[in-house]
Amino acid sequence: MIKTFSEFSTNAILNIGDETLLEDFKAPKPIGLYTFIWTTDNPIQVKVDGVPMTIDPHQILTLTSIQYFQFIKGNDVIVYQFNREFYCIKDHDREVGCVGLLFFGNEHIPVIGLNDAEQHKFKTLHDVFLDEFETTDTIQAEMLRMLMARFIIKTTRLLKSGSKQKAIAKVSNDTLRHFNLLVETHFKEEHSIAFYAEKLHKSPKTLSNSFAKYNKSPLQIIHNRIVLEAKRQLLYTNKTSKEIAYDIGFEDASHLSRLFKKQTNLSPSAFKKLSTTTS
Q1: Tell me: the pLDDT tens digits for 224-251?
Q2: How far is the CA of 279 from the CAs of 25, 30, 66, 260, 263, in angstroms?
Q3: How many domains does the chain have?
């Protein structure tokens, strides 16, 4: 069962369906759309950015459009997918507060657990979604966007309050969330704290001090995002280490190689070779 809403004037797309929406991802590739994968009575097995994961029953996995995804096995899932034309996460963050949590956070892959009460609430919301798909009038698009905003708000609240996510919640203030979004937008061109501090209207020292109580410094977050991109390209493209380094903004490939080895204890070539032999 797949239901699709599309808007010709804006190229907006919203898909709601089951595991059929995931069948094209038997081999890893970018998920392409903002995606929620909601397990019902059975677990599923997936890989996200090369990391194997089992999503237990009654959990919701959140994926940003650029993440590499592979569907290994599972059934009885509910999948929501949409593009930025349907609902722009960045533009609507003031409303839903999800940037750096559900989307564009570089420190975790969000998985939200649903207790019995939340399962009932999400099921009710899902039924309203399906009903709205059958109502093709002039305000259908706006209604669907409102429902998606509600879904995002509910999952964001659960992510902030969930016991397994306490460590994440502690570091999820507005400065960190906006910093994560800026890094996501500019990490290929800008590697220094000074650039991001200016964007946040802070001095580099003030920005660094504001992260002092967290487990990661601003520079570590920048470096983590750079290394994550290098891993993705090593795993899923045929680019050489030198080509990847240039793509991520390094004029000298040795600089990326040193950073990569510091983070992973492997050179880029050794990482690619190890990943190939173990996949």
Answers
A1: 999 989 998 998 889 999 999 999 999 9
A2: 16, 17, 21, 20, 21
A3: 2
